[in-house]
From TrEMBL:
Signal peptide: none
Keyword Zinc: yes
Organism name: Pseudomonas sediminis
Domain Histone deacetylase residues, every copy: 28-337
Protein name per its UniProtKB record: Acetylpolyamine amidohydrolase
Length: 342
């Protein structure tokens, strides 16, 4: 399987995130992608290529120009103000406040963020931009006839909506790739999100559309981040009604419960008649993940890959979460090897 990867991800290395009432070292760190790349090479999964540059146009198909302009310029503005350390929001437009875009940098950051888990550093824009190009390059391989490809993206993307960052995510790589498939002539794309946390950004982007089916298996948002999206009764709106499927599972769920949800999601994808599948590949479902509460073990990821392969569809894997750094390479590559060996 061909892998696309960019060293630019090292440019994004946040010092801290707001979690559990404290500013803590970021769980989302460069070593995550480094371990996956090492495993790809050690297992001789296939060639690793640098991405092509497709420019901003395919990113603007998903993200608003105002949001992109803010994101691109935020660090420079922070430095002009004499800012020190990472740029993190400290206020948000809550339910009782107006949803307007202030002139102030911090007001805009709060408007374009939904949590304190997406620090902006000197290299964050370039890292996120390059991650989107990694996804687009792998997408183009499948558009050109490849049956599968792996986009080793970092930072991840599935929590980012059209004009909102959060949850370690800035640009929604899976959504950008799915839209590229549609723009190149595909009529029906499925996104299967297997990350422990619900892909709230991806759902929001496609919630009123029927050309992308979104299916997500994740921790129950009644007790897990992102809390405010990912419930089973969210089925889409308008033209998108009936094309959004969430499978929230309780803390402590093992492979038996998780795989049953995967079977339901795969059946939905098959019934939909998808022409291609984009997998938001998070492996924070692992039993030793430090911020997640499922109990999947490394061999389970081989079985996951085999079930996805059974769909018989061209499949683009895009890396999302997974924070047990020593195991992330094994688990991510197990999915890919299970897919290829099916």
């Amino acid at each position: 399987m061909l892998t696309y990867y960019s060293d630019d991800h090292h440019l994004h290395h946040g010092k801290c995130e707001l979690i559990d009432g404290q500013l803590m070292p970021c769980f989302e760190k460069p070593q995550r992608a480094d371990h996956i790349l090492a495993r790809v090479n050690n297992r001789q999964l296939g060639e690793v290529r640098a991405p092509r540059d497709f420019g901003l146009a395919p990113i603007e198909r998903i993200h608003s120009k105002a949001y992109l302009e803010f994101f691109k310029s935020a660090w420079a503005r922070w430095q002009e103000q004499g800012g020190k350390g990472d740029l993190l929001p400290f206020t948000w437009p809550a339910r009782t406040l107006r949803r307007m875009i202030p002139n102030d940098l911090h007001g805009q950051l709060g408007y374009y963020s939904f949590d304190g888990g997406a620090p902006i550093t000197a290299g964050t824009w370039q890292a996120a931009y390059s991650a989107a190009q990694v996804a687009l390059s792998a997408q183009q391989e499948i558009a050109n006839g490849a049956h599968s490809a792996f986009a080793l993206c970092r930072p991840p993307g599935h929590h980012a909506a059209g004009d909102v960052m959060g949850g370690y995510c800035y640009l929604n790589n899976a959504a950008i790739a799915a839209q590229a498939f549609l723009d190149q002539g595909r009529k029906k794309v499925a996104i299967l999100d297997v990350d422990y946390h619900h892909g709230n950004g991806t759902q929001d982007i496609f919630y009123q559309r029927s050309d992308v089916l979104f299916a997500s298996i994740h921790g129950d948002p009644a007790e897990e981040f992102p809390f405010f999206l990912g419930y089973a009764d969210e089925l889409g709106e308008g033209a998108g009604e009936g094309y959004n499927f969430n499978y929230p599972l309780p803390m402590g769920s093992s492979w038996e419960a998780w795989s049953a949800a995967l079977e339901q999601a795969c059946q939905r994808i098959a019934e939909y008649g998808a022409e291609v599948v984009v997998v938001s590949l998070g492996v924070d479902t692992y039993m030793e993940d430090p911020i997640s509460q499922f109990k999947l073990d490394s061999p389970d990821y081989l079985a996951m890959g085999r079930r996805i392969a059974a769909l018989g569809l061209p499949t683009l894997f895009i890396m999302e979460g997974g924070y047990a750094v020593e195991a992330i390479g094994v688990n991510a590559v197990n999915v890919l090897e299970g897919f290829e060996g099916a």
